[in-house]
């Protein structure tokens, strides 16, 4: 029996060591494969026309982020405050910058932490701003269905991002390259 336990421990010690560099890379791959283009396209819908669209968000940006406030001003975004503009611009840039940082593995833990905040705000906006309270969209934990967009799917998103926050970007990342260069640099 001791031999069997020893073999088990040896094999899974190797698996655990491999997981230390493989799992962070796989978490970033999972994010890239499932959410990078999602957020990129969402960010594109928020840009205004032309090169100055980077600083002049579309009406769709305001309707996605501040639906009730935009409706209250008759869908005239010029009546919203500078605060609204700053939040929309920050949210739009975040949809481009944070996912890109995660995918290339630069400032990955901070970017993943920022994305967790983004997903939470996105979910709250969907629930309170857009009224996404039907059970099919909202979902519920510990029920027999796993297809709720907000409670079920976004829990997986946040778990993947939390894994990146805790474990970092992994061996194949700009963070790791910078860490190796710093460790080998003369003091």
From TrEMBL:
Alphabetical UniProt keywords: Membrane, Transmembrane, Transmembrane helix
Listed InterPro entries: DoxX (IPR032808)
Recorded superkingdom: Bacteria
The keyword Protein biosynthesis belongs to this UniProt entry's keyword annotation: no
The name this protein goes by in its record: DoxX family protein
Protein location: Membrane
Transmembrane spans: 21-39, 82-103, 110-129, 155-178
Species for this entry: Falsiruegeria litorea
Location (main, coarse): membrane
Membrane protein topology class: Multi-pass membrane protein
